[in-house]
Fold this protein.
Amino acid sequence: MRKNSLLKSIRGKITFFTAALTITLTVLAVTICFYAFHSYQKKMMIRSSEFNLQSIADNTSADLNNILSFVKWCCSSSDVVEYMDTIHGQGTLGQISSKNPRVAQMAFDTYDRIWEEYTLHNQSNYIRRLILSSDNPLAYMQMFYSSVPDRADAASLIASQDFFIPLYEASSFQWDGMVQNPFNRISDEFIIPVVRPIYSGESSQTTGWLYVEISPELITSRLKAYPLESDSLLYLTIGEKNYLCDKGTLTESPFEYQQVSDLKGSTISTSSKAMEAILPGLGKRTILTCSLGIPDFQLTEVLSVRRDRAQQTLYTCIIAGILFAALSFGVVLMYFLNRTIVKPVHQLRQNMDSISRGIFDKNPDIEWENELGEIGKGINDLSENVVNLMNTRIEQERQKKDLEYQILQSQINPHFLYNTLNSVKWMATIQGATGIADMMTVLARLLKNVSKRSESMITLKEELELAGDYFQIQQYRYGSSISIRYEIASEDLFGCMVHRFSLQPLIENALFHGLEPKRAPGTITVFASSEGSGETKVLVLSVTDDGIGMSQETIEKVMSGESLEGSDFFKHIGISNVNNRIKYDFGASYGITITSEPGVYTTMTIRIPYIHKKEGVEKQA
């Protein structure tokens, strides 16, 4: 045999396409895994840092809020307000006491009340100094709780500081960051100042102010234990000032960055925000900001790149293992496919696909001189056998249908004769000889239609005439207690083709099962109409009686042709036969349906295709 080149051979093609598919799927899977792992790792790193920052923020916020609650109390306490109203505009405390000895006692009471409230707060150890001063800086009260020495001009010193006026005039708490302690110029000691005005209890006029020093240890004591990577940065923002935290030490430092993207969905709390930003000298970094729950206070962490890279290295190793396993599997798969799959398999599959689509043509091209050729020959033999079997089955079904139709027709004839003769018996018994001639004339006409005509389809007009003859016979039995009326929607319906003797069983069922048990006068209504248009147009025939009605169980037995009891077989077999004839000729979507309300009515409806007879030729509407 002539050897083909590698790329033209089956082996080469299988190897090439299998390798390409394996590598493509592997690279795609590895890429998706890498980015999924990286995204998950970054989100987990952000949330881990967020949890740590939020823990510090929650504790710090609780302590700071307690201190602010103490400050608010001092500014609104009735004792403090009354005391400030008393000394307002009165000079120094010594001058005021000489004029009003009660002021000294009020000063002691106010001092004790502030001290009592101070000791009730768990965060009192973070309050370094408290000064309560009137509009005269010489009339002030001071409480300090640190080793920093006191000064006689303490109120004047505070009032001269740069932060005093902005904080004093602010509508609510305002922060100027950390400032050098005005009472300690020897060493670098910083405090967080709080200044609030005190209003008169009788008017909106200010009578003085309150100054409180908060120790930065309120925040730094917790930041000392914060787990921070060596290449991470932690900033504390107070007001408009930023402080770099280094092992609990805060150093004022500018914090500038340019936001690149907002990492929405990476944080758990709404008070936290994560973003990608570019920092001068550091490049692109991930920044996490967490609010302390108080305006102008927040913690910001520049997340570690080293930690991110370490996680990426781990994920890269895992993904490399997946890649190696996938490529190994691909190599094994290619080896297996190269040894087992050849071109004839594809041809056999195409031939089998043709068979599945109903094409059973014999294909001699798949009968090779090898094992696969034997399979191809078997497929061809199978196709031929299926065709023969289908032809045989179709012929058998046609013969079966003809036989069943003859059986159904033969069932209708004796059934009809039985009921007609039964009516003659009743007529002879009850009425004597009067009317027998008329009834026998109608009977003869009916028997002639049964015996002489062989066509299965007649016009609706002819079918209505047969039904009328049958009902006339039954009127001799029941007298004037029963009546029938016809409602035909349009004249063209009379030319529609219906099964012969399709209405008679329905009228018979209405008489025997609906009106006869009623033992009272009753009426049967035959209605004809059409639905739809074009090829989907349907002829609808219905027979309704105002008799005793039928239960659902009885309806099911009538439709199945099941015998209820005794001679009831002859009352219900006709409907089942007509229904089967319709379904045989037109399909399962057509036939008879029954609706009934016990004690009120029963309606039997026939639905068949609209076929009209014009000039002796049947045409589908």
In short: Residues 564-573, 615-621 have pLDDT under 50 and may be disordered. The longest helix spans residues 10-76. The longest strand covers residues 190-199.
